[in-house]
Structure formats: C-alpha cells, structure tokens
Amino acid sequence: MRALAALHREVAACARCVGAGFIPAAHPIFKGEVGNRVMVVGQAPGVLAHERPLPYTGASGKTLRGWLAAAGFDDGALHGRFYLTSLTKCFPGPSASGKGDRAPSAAEIAFCRGHMERELALVRPELVLALGRLAATALVGPAPLVELVGTLRPAERAGHRFHVLPLPHPSGVSRWLTDPANRARHMAALRLLDDERTRRGL
Ligand code: SF4
After folding, report:
1. Which tens digit of pLDDT belongs to each residue from 24-47?
2. How far apart are CA 70 and CA 54, in angstroms?
3. For the segment 41-73, what is each residue's pLDDT rounded down to a tens digit?
4. Which residues line ligand 1 (CB under 6 A)?
5. Which residue lies with its CA nearest to atom 6 of ligand 1?
6. Whose CA is nearest to atom 8 of ligand 1?
7. How far apart (Å, rounded) are the C-alpha atoms in residues 102 and 94?
8. Domains in the chain with CATH codes
C-alpha cells in the first residue's frame, strides 16, 4: 500500500511529456488501491478528466458503464471497486482532424509505460480490461483488435499472473463497432466478462 501511494505521488508529479514537448501541461489521472481485483487500462484520459478529477466520468465512461452493466456488474463497480488507469495518464490533446482526442504517440506511451507496469506489479489485479488496440497490445503483444476482442489472454508482470480481456475503445469516435462482425465479437467479449465475473465472484 505504501509503495502504491509512493508511486501515485511520483506519477502525480510527472511531467516528462511536457518536457519533451508533447503536451502543454501534465494532469495525470488514475484511481484505485491495492486490493482492486479488476483493473481498467484505457488509452489516455479525456479532455475534462483532470477537472473532475476521476477517470471515465465523461461519454466514454457512460458507454463503459453500459458495457459493464451488460456483463452483470452493478453501477458502482467501475468507480467503487476497479483500479482505473491508462497507457498515458495525461490528456494528449485533440486530434489533428478535430474529431476526438489525439492517440498518444509511441514515445509518450514509452515514457508512461513504467508507471503502468509498476501499477500492475503493485495492485496485482486478477483481471485487466484493456480498452482499445493500443492498450490491449501493450499488455498482450501485437495483434489486430479483431483477433483480441472476444478472447481472454494470460499475462504476467513481476511474477504476478493475471488475465487480460480486450474490449474496443468506448470512445464515440471509434468506428470499430459499426461493423456487424465486430459487434458480434464485442457481445462475445461481454459474455466472457459476465462468465469471469460470475466465476471469480467479482
Ligand atoms: S503521460 Fe505519463 S509520462 Fe507523460 S507526463 Fe503524464 S504521467 Fe508523465
């Protein structure tokens, strides 16, 4: 617990991406504690997350809560019992097209990767929900999202074994779910999540 609190202080003071010129200001967002059995790893916080300051309270959070409800979780699970983090902890800025947020660059993900690896090693979650291709591949290795969504992948960090359940990114600008075959993959993933919730008593 002390080690996680120390990590949280370290991340809260991190400004590596500001120093490297990627973002104008760092507002690292994360939430959770040792004992959280489910971890959510997203891509990056949204634009207003640091004002709330809580992950997954905007439109993406609403979509994600809907998915969790479909998998049988109660409405308080996401913000009450899950550890919430992302590949990069700071809002990366808007996309060049103006539609949605900019995906963090490989360099920013590399800067922030150590934070996530230490969160995994200290929190030791049983199940990690990976939101989107970037998060899923950072956890289980390179693969297209169509091969990942609907599967449960074993992973290990710092001697701790856990499972990764990839999901699409819940952002409204993601077009992935417009394909009926992908919607079927997504439904299979939610059924798998429901099975894991029941089997593990999450
Ligand atoms: S995204 Fe991560 S590495 Fe970059 S400034 Fe924020 S906390 Fe630091």
Report:
1. 999 999 999 999 999 999 999 877
2. 22
3. 999 987 766 667 788 888 889 999 999 999 999
4. 11, 14-18, 26, 28, 88-90, 108, 111-112, 115
5. 90
6. 14
7. 5
8. 2-200 (3.40.470.10)
